[in-house]
Every structure is written in C-alpha cells, then in structure tokens.
Amino acid sequence: MKTYILTMVCLYILTIGYSQNTIKIWETEPSFKVPESVLIDNNILYVSNINGKPDEKNGKGFISTLSMDGKINKLTWVNGLNAPKGMSIYNGYLYASDIDRVAVINVNESSIDHFIDIPNTKFLNDITVSPDGSVAVSDMKDNAIYLIKDNKAQLLIKDEKLISVNGLFFEGELLFIGTSNIIYRYDLVSENPQLEEYIINTGGIDGLERYDANRFIISDWSGKVQIVSPDTTPIEVLNFTDNNYNAADIDFDTSSKTLYIPTFYGNTVAKYHIK
C-alpha cells in the first residue's frame, strides 16, 4: 500500500505544470552539463552545454548531439567553448554564442572552424540567422544586438528598451526580439529602422520561436512556456516555476507541434507534443 501511494505521489509531481493539451514524449537522463539551448537540424538535436558558470571562460563548454528519440549520439560532439548558449545553423555551419565571441562550427567536420570576436560585449546569448546568412546575436547584459556579415560583427541596436534582451527570431528581413516583458519587431530594410512593440506583457523571454503564422511560443527560464500573439490572450503550455524546472532556449517543430526544452540546471532535454 505504501509503495502504491509513493508511486502515485511521484506521478502527480511529474505532471505538475502540464496543460491538458501538452503531452510529454520523453526526457533524457541528466547527462548534460547545464544545457542552455537546443536546436533541430536534419533530424539531429544539438544541445549547448555551459559546463560551469554562465559567464565563465573556462574552455569546458561543449555541444552535444541527440537523436530525435532522445538518445545521446555524442555527448561531446564539439568542445573547447566558453559557456555556449544560443545556436543557429546556416549553410553547413553552426553558430554558437560564446560570452564575447561567436563560434563557427563546421557541421560536417564536427570541429570549430573559427571564432568571431565581438569586442566590448558582456554576455552574448541568443543567435538567429536570416535567409541571406546574416547572424544576429543578443548581448543580454548590455541592451544590445550585433549583426554579423561576412564574418565581421557590427552593432545593430543598442537601446535602453532592450532590457535583458535574449531570444531572437528572424523572419525574412524582420527581426523579432524578446526582452524582459516585450517582443519587439525590427525591420532591417526600413529606411529608418525602429524598435516596434509587437507583443507586450509577455514576462521574461529566453527562447523565442514561431508557433504558427500569427503566434510565437516563448520560454521563461524560470519554468514557464507560453503561446503568445499580438491579438489574443497568452496560452500557458507549461509552468514549472514552483518546481525549479527551468525552461531555457527552446526549439519548436511547427509541422509536428513538437517542443524541445533544455532544462538548464536539471541537466536534461525534454520533448513535448502540443495538441
């Protein structure tokens, strides 16, 4: 009887924070070392591992690869990084933020090709790539975003509005920017580009991904995942804020409505289906 009660309590704890329209598919063993970001590409999941403090230049950070069923292919696929966080892939190269530089990794060779230094940056975080290969990276501690073209970085925006700027998402020439409580829209080809408030009262944003044509799915490191839009009330998908279950830089497959969450200090990656 005691065993049965204990089992039921454990099951209850595991389901705290789930919405009725969210199904957990799998979660890995806690084999990672502070996983911050997960990225889907060609049926491979890439996971950035800070492996230390988020601002520590210890050379111990690494990237892992997972199969789509949650099995670890290579725990240490590429190493020698400094607290890597956001990632994006373009034309066979994976870009990963690395505190004050961006690592450019040759995917086919599974090795670091080179680094792009960005002087005077404080805490580079998320990365996104435009259709033409321009790389945007956020500096969370300096209210700034940099743009990399032809392996050269330049300041794109620095503004007091960009409080705790983190999640970035390119859609054509539009850059969507997640901050502490607002998603901004920024048109790179406008004659006079301005930060335009797009979705307000979002709460803190870590991951920022497109959910469908009109909505985004966002994660808050404290443990909340929501679907948000300019026109509708936010839909809470998951909420683990009371369980110390973090939700860092997510990725989302729009075709299958599948969500991938790196759990940071939980040292796992989890997969959920949103009905």
Overview of the molecule:
The structure is a single chain. With 275 residues, the protein is mainly beta. The chain has one helix and 24 strands. A four-stranded antiparallel sheet has the order 1-24-23-22, with no helix packed on it. Strands 2-3-4-5 form a four-stranded antiparallel sheet, with no helix packed on it. A four-stranded antiparallel sheet has the order 6-7-8-9, with no helix packed on it. A hairpin with a 5-residue loop joins strand 4 and strand 5. The N terminus is likely disordered.
| Helix proportion | under 10%
Average pLDDT number: 92
- Report strand order across the widest sheet: 1-24-23-22
Measured by DSSP, the beta-strand proportion falls in over 45%
Q: Would you spell out the secondary-structure blueprint of this structure?
A:
Blueprint: H1 2-15, E1 22-27, E2 35-41, E3 44-49, E4 61-66, E5 72-81, E6 87-90, E7 93-97, E8 101-106, E9 111-117, E10 124-129, E11 135-139, E12 144-149, E13 152-158, E14 168-171, E15 174-178, E16 182-187, E17 196-200, E18 208-210, E19 216-220, E20 224-228, E21 235-239, E22 251-253, E23 258-262, E24 269-274
Antiparallel strand pairs: 1-24, 2-3, 3-4, 4-5, 6-7, 7-8, 8-9, 10-11, 11-12, 12-13, 14-15, 15-16, 16-17, 18-19, 19-20, 20-21, 22-23, 23-24
